[in-house]
Amino acid sequence: SSKIRNMEVQSADGVAVLEDCIGFSLTKTISRIEEKLKKGGLPNCPDDDITPSVGNEMAAEAQIRFLKAKLRVTQEDLANVVFECRKKDDENQNLETRLKDTEEENARLQHTISMQQSQTEKYKVLSQEANKKSEGLQQEVIALEKVLQ
């Protein structure tokens, strides 16, 4: 995700590779392609699947229009993908934050449970001691009542 945000426009073999929409100029790219077409600088690639099979029969202007349209569609698709990636990245950040908060609350609750369990054990011991003392005092009361009679 950090790669997507820090991408720049690069050029490879005279073809602009749009990796992020920031700083991209469609007009400049089209102008460069048109200049190369005028100079005859773009090679004909028989294996190229950009232009349809009738591309060889198309006039240069028609090919340029076709390539411009193809470039616009590709640019829109890429912009959509970048948008979706950023959206997913933001969603991931939110989920990571929620997970961290949940883990912290879980740790806090575990600590509270541990303290409550130790207090429960302490009160059980105190209750047992109080019961023994009470029984002992009851026995003493009974013994004293017998002495008084």
Automatic annotation (TrEMBL):
It comes from the Eukaryota. Residues 85-147 form a coiled coil. Keywords: Coiled coil. This is TEX9 protein.
